[in-house]
Amino acid sequence: MLISASLEAACQTEGMPELIRTCLLFAVDDGEQPRVLLGRKKTGLGAGRVVGLGGHLEAGESPSQAVIREAREEAHIEVVESDLELAGFVVFTFPHRPAWSQTVDVFVTRRWGGQPSSSIEIEPEWHPVDTLPLEAMWDDARYWLPQILDGEVISVEVTFGPDNRTVAEHSIRAEPTQEPGGRG
Predict the structure, then answer these.
(1) Distance between CA atoms of residues 102 and 9, nearest Å
(2) pLDDT band for position 17 (50/70/90)?
(3) Is there a contact between 134 and 166 (Cβ–Cβ < 8 Å)?
(4) Euclidean distance between CA atoms 160 and 68, whole angstroms
(5) Residue 149 and residue 13: Cα distance in Å, rounded?
(6) Which stretch of DSSP H or E encloses residue 9?
(7) 141: left (phi over 0), alpha (psi -120 to 50) or beta
(8) Do 71 and 78 contact (CB within 8 A), yes or no?
């Protein structure tokens, strides 16, 4: 799946310092009862919350390379680049804690190797797609995660409030997609 050129540009915030670039992966099992692999964060930013797999890009890494590495490190699953679907971009702004502000490349995969297992950072958990544990996740997830898991491609901007926990403002824009070869 190719994404319109406007998607990434939509998440470039004018007048702001360059934000940390991160990535997220949602492994979806489309079986009889669709489910998504999430994980309970054990350490660092978001400890105790249920999150997608992912993290910061290392020097020289592309977002897809980073999300493949993070899936291996955090849940011990193997993903190949050709099985990644770019599902969107999210800009998180924390005006009261600017060091937490970041951009996120969001991917979905429906194929991987290995069985998810615990790591130092994440305790992997399967959750039904239709009953996501939104109350245990970052507040923003309820605004965009169901849409991505439903196959939409979106760009999202989220601004957190003074408590750095709840969403003060958000905007979501669905993006047109174009299949390889110009079919859309």
Answers:
(1) 15
(2) low
(3) no
(4) 28
(5) 25
(6) helix 5-10
(7) alpha
(8) yes
Q: What is the pLDDT of residue 44?
A: 85
For residue 148, the 8-state DSSP code is: H
Return d(Cα 21, Cα 11) in angstroms, integer.
Answer: 11
Cα gap 97→74, rounded to integer Å: 26
- Domains of the chain as residue ranges with CATH: 17-177 (3.90.79.10)
Helix (H, G, I), strand (E, B) or coil at 31: coil
Residue 11 clears pLDDT 80, i.e. is over it? no
Query: Residue 116 is encoded by which pair of tokens?
Result: 């998810």
Residue with tokens 């310092």: 17
H/E element holding 71?
helix 63-75
Quote the tokens at residue 60: 């020289």
User: What is the pTM for the complete model shown?
Assistant: 0.86
Over residues 56-82, mean pLDDT:
96
Two structure tokens written together for 12: 């470039």
Encode pLDDT of 163-176 as tens digits: 999 999 999 998 76
